[in-house]
Amino acid sequence: MELDTTSCDDTEPRRRGRRLLHLAETNRLEAFSDGVFAIVVTLLVLDLKEPAHSPGQLLAALARQWPAYLAYFASFAYVAVIWLNHHQTFVGIQRVNRGVHFANFALLFTTALIPFPTAVLSRTFIAGIDSSDAHTAVGLYAGVAASMCASWLLLYHQVHRHRDRLVQEEVDRERFGTERARAIIGIVAYLTAGVLGTLWLPAIALVVFLALPTFYGVTSEGLKAVKARE
Amino acid sequence: MELDTTSCDDTEPRRRGRRLLHLAETNRLEAFSDGVFAIVVTLLVLDLKEPAHSPGQLLAALARQWPAYLAYFASFAYVAVIWLNHHQTFVGIQRVNRGVHFANFALLFTTALIPFPTAVLSRTFIAGIDSSDAHTAVGLYAGVAASMCASWLLLYHQVHRHRDRLVQEEVDRERFGTERARAIIGIVAYLTAGVLGTLWLPAIALVVFLALPTFYGVTSEGLKAVKARE
Amino acid sequence: MELDTTSCDDTEPRRRGRRLLHLAETNRLEAFSDGVFAIVVTLLVLDLKEPAHSPGQLLAALARQWPAYLAYFASFAYVAVIWLNHHQTFVGIQRVNRGVHFANFALLFTTALIPFPTAVLSRTFIAGIDSSDAHTAVGLYAGVAASMCASWLLLYHQVHRHRDRLVQEEVDRERFGTERARAIIGIVAYLTAGVLGTLWLPAIALVVFLALPTFYGVTSEGLKAVKARE
Amino acid sequence: MELDTTSCDDTEPRRRGRRLLHLAETNRLEAFSDGVFAIVVTLLVLDLKEPAHSPGQLLAALARQWPAYLAYFASFAYVAVIWLNHHQTFVGIQRVNRGVHFANFALLFTTALIPFPTAVLSRTFIAGIDSSDAHTAVGLYAGVAASMCASWLLLYHQVHRHRDRLVQEEVDRERFGTERARAIIGIVAYLTAGVLGTLWLPAIALVVFLALPTFYGVTSEGLKAVKARE
Fold it and tell me: What's the gap in Å between the CA of A57 and the closest CA on chain C?
């Protein structure tokens, strides 16, 4: 409504005032979240260190720590995809309430946690891809990743429930209800991968761990948008 | 006043120019504070490390460091609640003066400090919940937390004293005076808990330490808003 | 078009609404990127530490670690130049699509990586400027730096392909096509330096490593602007 | 001029478009700088650690590391004062050119460096307030601090030289020329303190090191404003 008013009537400035307030509101949530995402993504490089080596053996030592490069790339890509989804989600939101704030905190909490299970996972896989510790590490990673998907579900659900007040008029307001499906797919996939990987074969879980960020990257504009492009 | 002007008269653009300046003013304070909050909250994960363990003992080793997870969760939740209160406070402020700047610095200073007493506390509690060091750690934590509440009191007081210039017209300008009560509750509660915990039973202090962030989370929109919802 | 409308017609507010959305869109990409650049640039100081020394020998010990100061300065200057180019690039962009997002992620990924080869390089050069490890380190640095230039090429190319939708009307829209030349110069120069430095003389590569950030700093407003100033 | 136009003529939207561009320009410089300041100020807490101690000796061990608390407080206060001055300086600037960008980089470079000489200084003072290493440390700190003041001088000078294009009309444009005096006071004071402290008595330098941030905090609105308040 605020965006549709014909201008130059005397109530408009007051409305613009309120609108600035609301923008500021979402802006700060986004600025805080951007800060957390940017720090998580940048702290990852602290795990890359010059490997210990005897003189002349630098090349071989660098090559030996390839799993650290892979983990750096995978974590960076995952957090970047989360940021992209967060960005895409909040483009259409003009206001936030307490429920959205708390769902967003849950999301930041689980995202900031990701470097921990990633480091555990990459180190146990170097020790042995089917060791008993690899089974444990796969379960830990799946648990954290499933919790993150659960916080997305909470976020989409909160926005959907209050879509009349929170979502801009120009935007397809039913989008956030549909988005919940993407979060549920993640929860189910990570939990299944965790159970199979812990009890049976860790390598199966790994495939899922790499496939899901790709899925979320491709569908960051929503499942509908992907279908529409086909 | 700036928000109430009927538009299209020739003084309006100049006013909007000033308004942009003021918004920019609060914006930078908020951006700087958001940066500090985001970094504090994200640095906490650096304390979570893969525990040393013999092969096959990863699960047990992960389980043994449960107090580190609890401390991570509690610190994250506390800083998130502080951010939420900060956000809620500045939504209605359109301008800041030197007093507000310095009160805000005091707040950031004490917030950035929180990881330190938290780490000391969690480690001494693993060693023994009623050890002489636990009494010390409880006193340290209570002191830092009470200082943080004192900086909130200073902030609310500064805004309240200059509410005519600093607070937007649309907002309930007396709110900031009332908010001081919340800060005073915190100072009294933390100091009491610190004295009781140091001289008598550390576990009592712990209960207060967990209760107060919850109290501040629930009342982040002000005591009045909570009453109004009832 | 949005910027050229005569005002006060009833479609303007809706347009301004959309315009705010688009600004917000680029703003978040810029905020996230600023966060990453700011953190990379600030984390570098963590490598400067008080050197171990016997009492009274602080001055000599500080002097001995001069390559660490040089590396700190060079890395800081390089990331600052990257930020300046990023800033200059996005000034004229009013909207971003998925391609630009992914090119920007590639750029942040390679930028966040820079402290790693820099540290390896500076340490091997202290050990010996023509050692076999120096040859390796030069190759590593050249590879990362060439990848970063490749991500710039991708970014300029993405913007150029969709310049009608993404670039503001007031801006010279062909600029982004021309900018690709700067990125290609970087890729060729770093790869040549890497091959010469690895197979023949590391010192040659060093000269290129110091010359290229200077080149990018001087031409941050585009090759055309530099020509125009002459 | 842009801020003085009577509204509703058909050139206004284009002007507002440009104005948004310029605001965006300064905004990104400010956002990047805010990020660096926020990270520097928050990383300082990483130096506060639970001291090694035998059971029951926590209180004594905490008390023994008081210089670390003092250094934390002093560094935090100094960077906060720098941020406040930076904020105050850029409030009146509507546009930045290359010279301002590079002066700002020099400022961020020297600010990000501050934790290093601070740590060296606090540790040598614990070892002995008139030791030969304390003389060295005082010289190092004075050198870095004087460089920071020199970068302020450069920044004020750049803005002053191009004040017609860079500074908003509403602002006292001669302010930036006068501000240079504050920077020169700092350079002279730090260099004098450094020479006296290195060659004669380190304690004298310490007094200057604590006095100057206070001076810059009090005069952050400019020397004129301070005089006007008297």
Answer: 7
Query: Residues in chain A whose beta carbon is closer than 8 A to a beta carbon of chain B?
Result: 7-8, 10, 12-14, 16-18, 20-21, 24-25, 28-29, 31-32, 34-36, 38-40, 43, 98, 101, 105, 108-109, 112-113, 115-116, 119-120, 123-124, 127, 131-133, 136-137, 140
pLDDT < 70 stretches in chain A: 1-25, 222-230
pLDDT of residue B229: 53
Give which of C50, C41, C162 is closest to C99, Cα–Cα. Answer: C162
Q: Which of A121, B188, B164, C87 is nearest to D102 (CA)?
A: C87
Question: Are the beta carbons of D23 and B28 separated by less than 8 Å?
Answer: no
pTM passes above 0.90: no
Asked if ipTM goes beyond 0.85, one says no
Radius of gyration of chain C measured on its C-alpha atoms:
21
Q: In this structure, which amino acid lies at residue C215?
A: F
Of the listed ranges A95-99, A115-119, B153-157, D63-67, the least confidently predicted one is D63-67
Q: What is the pLDDT of residues B29-43, one digit of tens each?
A: 888 898 899 988 888
Segment B202-230, tens digit of pLDDT: 888 888 888 888 888 888 776 665 555 54
Nearest to A151 by CA among A113, A110, A95, A112: A110
Q: Which helix (H) or strand (E) holds B59?
A: helix B58-64
The nearest alpha carbon in chain C to D35 belongs to C38
- Cα torsion C197, C202, C203, C205 to 10°: value is 30
The number of CA neighbours under 13 Å toward the Cβ of C81 is: 21
- Residue from the list A13, A25, A28 with its beta carbon closest to the beta carbon of B7: A13
- At A167, give phi and psi (nearest 5°): -100, 140
A163's CB contacts (< 8 A; 6+ apart) are A173, A174, A176, A177
Which chain C residues are within 8 Å of D98, Cβ to Cβ? 220-221
Q: Could you read off the pLDDT of C201-213 as tens digits, one per residue?
A: 888 888 888 888 8
Cα–Cα nearest to A25, from B87, B30, C19: B87
Helix extents (H) in B44-57: none
pLDDT confidence of B11, banded at 50, 70, 90? very low
Question: Contact partners of B by the rule of 3+ C-beta pairs under 8 A?
Answer: A, D
Virtual CA dihedral for B11, B13, B19, B23, nearest 10 degrees?
180
The DSSP-derived string for D83-141 is HHHHHHHHHTB----HHHHHHHHHHHHHHHHTHHHHHHHHHHHHH-TTSHHHHHHHHHH
Question: Which residue in the set A12, A112, A132 is minimally distant from B42, CB to CB?
Answer: A112
